[in-house]
Fold this protein.
Amino acid sequence: MSAAPDAAWIQACLAASLLAIDPAGTSVVVRARPGPVRDTWLARLHALLPEGTPVTRLPAGIADDALLGGLDLPATLATGRPVAQPGLIARSHGGMVVVPMAERLGPGTAARIAQALDTGAVEVARDGIATRHPARFGLVLLDEGEGEDEALPACLADRAALHLDLDAVPPGALAAAPPLPDLTGAGAGAGAGAIQADVPPEAAETLCAVAARLGIASLRAPLLALRVARLHAALSGRAALEDADLTAAVALVLAPRARAWPDDKSEAPSEPPPGPDEAEPADRQEDDRIGKHQCLDDRVLAAVAASLPPGLLARLLAGEGPRTRSPGAGRAGAATSAQRGRPVGARPGDPRRGRLALIETLRAAAPWQRLRRGEAEARLRITADDLRIRRLVQKRETTTIFAVDASGSAALERLAEAKGTVESLLAECYVRRDRVALVAFRGSGADLLLAPTRSLVRAKRALASLPGGGGTPLAAGIEAAGRLAAMERRAGRSATVLLLTDGRANVARSGAPGRAQAGADALSAAKALAATGTRALVIDTAARPQDSARTLAAAMAARYLAMPQADAARLTRAVREAAPPG
């Protein structure tokens, strides 16, 4: 087992201990996909938190009234006066909010959470109520994004003190986890009251200087690093900050935010320092102070460089900064909340779990008013059984999977024309903010050239490098596209397969040549894809329309389109019709 992953896991365990000391004042970004490493770290954090600490999971696409609070309609109807109910943030006061797939947070939701973090309270003024709830909480932002297109909102990443990367930790390193520390002496759960360590004057200057040398522009970063350093001192039982506390703070707070790693040669002064006879006493004292701080900065950076995982240090040396999403980067193709979908009727339900359908509620209550009201009473009486909420169709994120025949049967000029067709379809998918993937089949199998992404540049680059020639393993191409579509459905996304081929298979599923068996395998794979309910479009790339491609489209329950007869408008219309509604 390599030392670097062990060091990264030990550092992650240290971060969990620091979070547990001040759960409502410290937040963390955890870069990790679902798996045993992330689950073990979350379980460790739960075990370290003081008993009774609220830990809330943020639902995907949460509505504003559920997040911030609003009108408690059943209680309001029962009492005859507006009754406010706290939202998820207010209920998490003093605890932690776990945000799965934090890279999918909408900019509005991220901004509201950031405001609550800054003010420590949630204010609600609507629907006839005006209330303020205390809301001091920490965030556990689980980042599962892929590439540059899926990144955390910058406003939340900047406010999270700790940044961890658990993807570099293999499951085998979990056995080397240190035992759970006793946080009683460190004041676990006491929040800011636990941070009693004295701060020497040079400590704050050192953290600011290190942040500047790492190319960090955020003013919050050194402040958060100072808070983490004091937490580390409290965890170690020290009454004043030492170099070890500063080193831990730089490794957990500043290093993951770094845009560059300082080069010792570039930091060297251009002129030698003045001699003893050339400097005044006051200037000499100032030079000594600056030199002492420079020495401390260098010691801290050297200690941090020794403890960083090689992958992170290599990225910093290459000048690669952290992945964050600007506030204006929306996600038009993302799955939306059930409170924001397209209305398709109403049903009985609790308005706290949906949007109130007022007209349908009044219709349900109207026939019973004579029985419920006394004589000469004009007041409308509504019970919980009358309440109706809207039924909304939720828009789902869509992935368009291009399966391209790159075999020898699609001659080179036809392949070039197919690439041009795919480029025009890619532009249509980009406008609709679909994710796109590229599968190519030739020779004896199929290859995934581009995993699902929203990057049009990456898609075009993968398409440009698509080679041609060899046999036509059509069944392998259809099965590869089907497996990828199944993975996207398991992730909660809709999938559409666009198959570009002439339909003439000559390599069987086993990899053996033979047109008869290859054609039978292709039809079998097409029927299996149709059985999953995957939407598909078959584009015939032959010079003349082929019956084999028509038969394949019929087996796949897909629309057939001949490329020579398909202009740009027709292709665009076909892709829109093949995509799921929403």
Confidence is low (pLDDT under 50) at residues 1-5, 264-273, 282-292, 328-338. Residues 255 and 404 are 43 Å apart (CA to CA). The two ends are 48 Å apart (CA to CA). The longest strand covers residues 445-453.
